[in-house]
Amino acid sequence: MDNISPVSRSLLTGQTETLLATQALANRKRPKRRRWGRWMGVMGLLALGGITIFFWRSGGIQPPPPVMEKTEAVTLQSLTIRVESSGSLEPISTVNVSPKTAGRLAELYVKQGDRVSKGQIVARMDGGTLKAELAQVQAQLAQIQAQYALTKNGTRREEVSQARAQMVAAKAKAEFSEKKLARYQILAKEGAISKNDLDQYLSEHQSNQATVQEAQEKLQQLSRGSRPEELDQRVAQVAESRAKIDQIQTQLEDSVIRAPFDGIVTQTYAIAGAIVTPTTSASSTASATSTSILAIASGIQAKIKVPEISIPQIQVGQTVDIESDAYPNRTFPGRVMRISPEAVVENNVTSFQVLVEFLNGQGELRAGMNVDATFMGKTISKALTVKTVAITTQSGSMGVMVADAQGQPKFQPVTVGLTQNGQTQILKGIKAGDRIFLDIPQVPKNPLAP
């Protein structure tokens, strides 16, 4: 009996006293009862006590534990605001590369997955026709430049002297024909020659006079030099030829396809020999098309969908931890780069797109991966917190079960704040040091009760 707990001892004592009182009353009513009946009552009492002790020790009835074991103290601790959401990865920059003019793809120097640098030649279009046209225009330019030089430098001295000599000779010939015509005119009057002969000499003299006029004009022209209009005309012709050459050279340069930025080739849409006809929509398509040669993407970023209720907790520059199913044991640090000013509604759920840039480790990630993001907010240094499981409701009010002076549970309404990692912030209703029940205690049932 020494090993029986005080509670068991008290219960056993009470039952014993009840049995003894019952036995005494029976003895008064039946004074002539045999003595052995008394011994039977004592034996029954001992048996009942043994059964009771058996139930206590076997767990059938457990004494109520102390209040300290049933409750937990409300504490003050640091609480960091954390917003959890999910999203996917996408390239920071992506573009479909295509030629400026339609043509045949002569060479493709890269393949899918290759990394390229800005300005690197990735493909070349066929430029055979342009090269022939360029050679022709260059020859025309050389000819026009020679004519321009001749016009600009003017007439040489030898040419002027030659023209003056020709004019002198023409005058002498004209003077001779004039004298000869005068003699034949006298003979014609006398009837010595016919009128036809006279007309022949007259025509010869007129021709000599015209030659003199032509020689004089040529000499004057050579003496004056080139006209300004002629020089301007040559200048315009030279400029026109040079413009044609620049245009053809630009087209030849455009036939060489270069990477617009550092990145990786994500897709190739054409092979050598294919005809590529670019359109204005070539840079926006994401599938194989005859308007593009290849696609290049640069960098990686996370596009996270944050619920409307959590968007006030998100700020540009905020720290973010990114986790991917492809790397379950790693966390990639990031930072909020941009918050979409317009909400997106999908399946009646309103959210905002938040772009997150990676601080390191993005080289191992790939566009299209699904990720989970945890936005790290401000830290509340002294937050009054309880375990979330202790929060309950009663009559539509949220609260906790507080231990009263007798250690019994009492519902206490509270105002809650943040919930993080199984801990809930209490803004109003209780104070640090109060003891609350994590579970509502149950009163043990007596197995001997009817």
Radius of gyration: 57 Å
Number of strands: 22
In which order are the strands of the major sheet placed? 2-11-15-13-12-16
How many helices? The count is 7
Order of helices and strands: HHHEEEEEEHHHHEEEEEEEEEEEEEEEE
- Terminal-residue CA separation: 26 Å
Q: Provide the β-strand percentage band.
A: 25-35%
Oligomer: single chain
Structural class: alpha+beta
What is the average per-residue confidence, as pLDDT, rounded to a whole number? 77
| Envelope shape | rod-shaped
Uncertain regions spanning at least 5 consecutive residues: 1-22, 28-34, 52-57, 280-288, 443-450
Instruction: Outline the biggest β-sheet.
Output: 6 strands, antiparallel, barrel
In percent, how helical is the residue content? 25-40%
List the helices and strands and how they pair.
Elements lengths: L5 H24 L6 H23 L8 H4 E3 L1 E16 L2 E5 L5 E6 L6 E2 L4 E5 L2 H26 L3 H34 L4 H30 L3 H27 L1 E3 L4 E6 L6 E2 L17 E5 L2 E7 L11 E6 L2 E13 L4 E3 L2 E10 L11 E18 L4 E3 L2 E7 L5 E5 L1 E6 L2 E6 L6 E3 L13
Antiparallel strand pairs: 1-22, 2-11, 2-16, 3-10, 4-6, 4-9, 5-8, 6-7, 8-10, 11-15, 12-13, 12-16, 13-15, 14-15, 16-21, 17-18, 18-19, 18-22, 20-21
Helix pairs in contact: 1-2, 4-7, 5-6
Would you give an account of this structure?
There is one protein chain. The two termini are 26 Å apart. This protein is of the alpha+beta class and 450 residues long. Strand 18 and strand 19 form a beta hairpin. The protein has a six-stranded antiparallel β-barrel. Strands 1, 17, 18, 19 and 22 form a five-stranded antiparallel sheet that branches. Strands 3-10-8-5 form a four-stranded antiparallel sheet, with no helix packed on it. 17% of the residues are buried. It contains seven helices and 22 strands.
